[in-house]
Amino acid sequence: MTTTTATTTAPARVRSSGAGWRGFGRLLRTETAVWLRDSTSVFFGILFPTVLLVGVGFGIPGMREPMTDVPPDSIWYGVTPIATYLPTVLAMAIGTLAILSLPVTFSTFRDKGVLRRLSTTPMRPQAIIVAHLVISIVTTFVGVALALVVAQVAFGIVRPEQLAVVLGAFVLGLLSLFSLGMFLSALVNKPSTANAVASLVYFPLLFLAGLWTPGPIMPDIVRQIGQFTPMGAAAQAMDEGWFGTEFPMLQYVVMAAWTVVLMPLAVRLFRWT
Amino acid sequence: MADPIVEVRNLRKTYGSKVAVDDVSFAVQPGEIFGILGPNGAGKTTTVETLAGLRTADGGTVRVRGIDTQRDPVAVRDILGVQLQEAALHDKITVGEALNLFAGFYADPADPAELMAMLDLTAHADRRFAKLSGGQKQRLSIALSLIGNPEIAVLDELTTGLDPQARRNTWELVERVRDTGVTILLVTHFMEEAERLCDRLVIIDAGNVVAEGTPQGLIDALEGGRTVVVRFAPQDVERGRRELAVLVDRDAEVEGVAPVDGSDTEIAVTGTRRVLFSLVPALATADLVPDDVRTVTKSLEDVFLAHTGRAYATGADDATTDTVLATEGVRP
């Protein structure tokens, strides 16, 4: 200890510039290192999309044969089923950490008093939220990139017809799903509740995004409902961008609306204790 | 006296209709170990959390080094180290990582390696938080409260859940920290801890300060004399109680005779400083040979009883480690 205490100190401002976010780099590095020790998050965030693609692509017969049993004017005509699965898998990938991981992480922080503990230091507790958003988004990108590379190598994925539409749908999907994740994080208090709520939201979203019934084989009712969910809209918009020629206006608006409504709500409702 | 480094004046804090802190005032001098002692639910933690700017007061002022922490809580975070009751760390972060991480938040941090050495944590630097023992977790928590080189450290219930040996080690540690010049605000419900560690303290009950002073000063100021506890063989207890009870009316030195709560064989005799002189001849006359006779030392528990009219009881949350007895003022 090198402390020397001034015994009679006049009231003084001790705040120095930079306080509040000082040490953020170290916080981000430490949180990343600690987070990587949680193998479940790492698996679901990075490997799951790829595992799913490869499993379905090689596990189900005919997934790699071009489809000729759809109407010739369909956007999927001549495309392999596994290629039509890709937009759905990507939509799932951008929602996995947002919905399954963030609410549990943040409610655990709240429950354990991590956020309160930070409040007593010069570091703002917001910093750890930002750090985990960064970690989750970067991990999501890594998972998506891995899935794309493996899909290219294993199946030779089709070049998107409208790359900009796919990218826009990806970004909007990311924003809307992370907004939903943050909204859930704001609402639930206990890690156990967070786990339950996250699953209750995540699996219906997967269904409506077509994880069990992708692209051509999706029942119309699922498509009709799914287009109003953030994950379903992301999958359909990327689908259209990948194989179609139209602009998925409705899906874009849906994702933007989820984001615009939920993100400010999440910020407003978030509790620190 | 120097200007107080911490000053709390007429603090009040309510949660809905529940009054957590009614009216609490005290001042802490630089370099002392100042105790906030009271039973669970007395308002101790609320007081220090408000002091640290984590809660909004309903009335009164709280100042740390002259800074109103209600108006400007951020201004004291570099000089006020806080150890909260609960653990508040990731299960998977290691001791070394946690200290390095927190060191990064402060303008002029202490050396994590030095702190680990001082708190006997060096050997556990790579151990994850979840794998630490209770004592190691507490030591890490103390280390984290000191990592910013604070002028004041708030230590809240720091030995709860520790075994007696770990508790005594922690006490020594707190004294060592104070010797480095850090003012310590010690929140505890544990009488022995306050008596052993604090230079001065306030006793808080139901949101109010009921006593303030040095531990010995508070004990010395107590009215009244002595308590002697006599233990009889089981077959003699009833006769012994009857023989001694006679003394209350007969002898001015004896004021009360009563069985000790929770004991079948012990009788407590209270009276003046000379109560023993009255007691022994009476036993001799009746030919009652006690198994044990001892005088009861007054403690902060008696101070609490004298000021609140209630025996000190801490609540059931840590009954396994704390042996604070509520025996109507008699401590066997």
UniProtKB/TrEMBL annotation, chain A:
Start and end residues of each ABC transmembrane type-2 domain: 40-273
Membrane-crossing residue ranges in chain numbering: 42-62, 82-106, 127-157, 163-187, 194-213, 249-270
Keyword Transmembrane helix: yes
Intracellular or extracellular location(s): Cell membrane; Membrane
Statement: the UniProt record of this protein carries the keyword Membrane: yes
Primary localization class, coarse: membrane
Bilayer topology annotation: Multi-pass membrane protein
PROSITE patterns: ABC_TM2 (PS51012)
Keywords annotated in UniProt: Antibiotic resistance, Cell membrane, Membrane, Transmembrane, Transmembrane helix, Transport
InterPro entries, alphabetized: ABC-2_transporter, ABC2_TM, ABC2_TM_bact-type, ABC_2_transport
Short name of one Pfam family: ABC2_membrane
Family: Belongs to the ABC-2 integral membrane protein family.
Record's protein name: Transport permease protein
Originating species: Isoptericola peretonis
UniProtKB/TrEMBL annotation, chain B:
Main location: membrane
Keyword Isomerase: no
SMART domains from the UniProt entry: AAA
Protein localization: Cell membrane
Keyword terms of this UniProt record: Antibiotic resistance, ATP-binding, Nucleotide-binding, Transport
Transferase in keyword set: no
Family matches, as InterPro entries: AAA+_ATPase, ABC_transporter-like_ATP-bd, ABC_transporter-like_CS, ABC_transporter_ATP-binding, P-loop_NTPase
GO molecular function: ATP binding
Domain ABC transporter: start-end pairs: 6-231
Gene3D superfamilies xrefs: P-loop containing nucleotide triphosphate hydrolases (3.40.50.300)
Membrane topology: Peripheral membrane protein
Protein name: ABC transporter ATP-binding protein
Species this protein is from: Isoptericola peretonis
